[in-house]
Design goal:
The chain is of the alpha/beta class. The protein has a domain at 4-179 and 219-244: NAD(P)-binding Rossmann-like Domain (Rossmann fold, 3-Layer(aba) Sandwich), CATH 3.40.50.720. Helix content is 38%, strand content 18%. It has ten helices and 13 strands. Helix 1 links the parallel strand 1 and strand 2 (34-39). The longest helix is centred in the first third of the chain and has 19 residues, at 94-112. The chain is globular.
Length: 313
């Protein structure tokens, strides 16, 4: 993907040492940008980032960092990915969730007011929609968040859109669906894919919460990086886009696909549904296709094969 608009530009990524942020860092560096990552390393890792003279890591928190105004003032583009992620985690710790996802976002938006930044891209989430009333889900679908995490992402999204209206901050929002890829982090709150891969490597059965018929839109991280960079260059301020693959996959189908990659029969242990999780999710990506030129390059089989190959190479 050739995006020459980033050549010789300065980019700030909050949460840039995390899963999506570290991949975005590489994409921007390849496009000729200088990158500054602000990350408190509570979830991200310094080793996720490439070693490059044009990349600097600032270990600090977007909520409290005294350097934030200076970092924003020197940036051409700001990518806001810093967040506490996880429906269950937010139900257990709503104060931390709100502090990071809402308070940190508002502070960043205020720092952007009156600066010369060209664009601020806010990483929102498909979780804001809650249970789908129709599939695929368009941008104007009803928003009924079913967890504090979803609520915090929706609240910060509305702050970003109002900051564009009231303060002239050139902010836009991308609603990510189920992003997967490398580096994967397996923990209690991570997505289903790293958990599945971890269990397969231990020759353990796959754990599915619910009946396995939940529908998800799995989008490979390199396609998400494409969308973020295209949006920064092409999307007007005050706009919102769904970013997914546009392809529906059930959790049962996902389990069968990863089992096939591992060369083992599908072995599933079913457990009760978890609170705060929706049953159906699938992105309508026609707006991003038409207005941004977004064109996902990875189907699920290709993306999963790259992950399995990298983890077993």
């Amino acid at each position: 993907m050739e995006l020459t608009g980033f050549r010789d530009s300065s980019c700030l990524i909050t949460g840039g040492a995390g899963f999506i942020g570290s991949n975005l860092s590489r994409g921007l560096l390849q496009a000729g940008a200088t990158v500054t990552v602000l990350d408190n390393l509570s979830a991200g890792k310094a080793e996720n980032l490439p070693i490059c003279a044009k990349l600097a890591l600032v270990v600090d928190d977007v909520c409290t960092s005294p350097q934030l105004p200076e970092l924003v003032a020197s940036a051409d583009y700001v990518f806001h990915l810093a967040a506490q992620v996880g429906n269950i985690k937010s139900i257990e710790s709503p104060e931390t969730d709100a502090r990071t996802n809402v308070g940190g976002s508002v502070r960043l938006l205020k720092c952007c007011q009156g600066t010369g930044i060209r664009k601020l891209v806010y990483a929102s989430s498909s979780a804001i929609f809650g249970e789908a009333e129709c599939l695929p889900i368009p941008e104007n679908h009803a928003q009924k968040p079913a967890s504090f995490y979803a609520l915090s992402k929706l609240t910060a999204e509305k702050y970003a859109l109002l900051a564009a209206q009231f303060w002239g901050v050139p902010a836009l929002c991308l609603r990510f669906f189920n992003v997967y890829g490398l580096p994967m982090v397996q923990n209690e709150y991570s997505g289903v894919l790293p958990i599945f891969f971890g269990l397969l490597r231990q020759s353990q059965p796959l754990i599915v919460y619910g009946d396995g018929q939940q529908v998800r839109d799995f989008v490979y991280v390199q396609d998400v990086v494409q969308a973020i960079m295209l949006a920064a260059l092409r999307a007007p301020a005050g706009t919102v886009y769904n970013i997914g693959s546009g392809t529906a996959t059930t959790i049962r189908q996902l389990a069968e696909t990863v089992s096939g990659l591992a060369g083992v029969p599908t072995n599933i242990v079913y457990r009760d549904f978890r609170p705060g999780e929706v049953r159906r999710s699938l992105a309508d990506i026609s707006k991003a296709r038409q207005q941004l030129g977004y064109d996902p390059q990875y189907n699920l089989e290709r993306g999963l094969a790259e992950i399995w190959r990298e983890g077993n190479g």
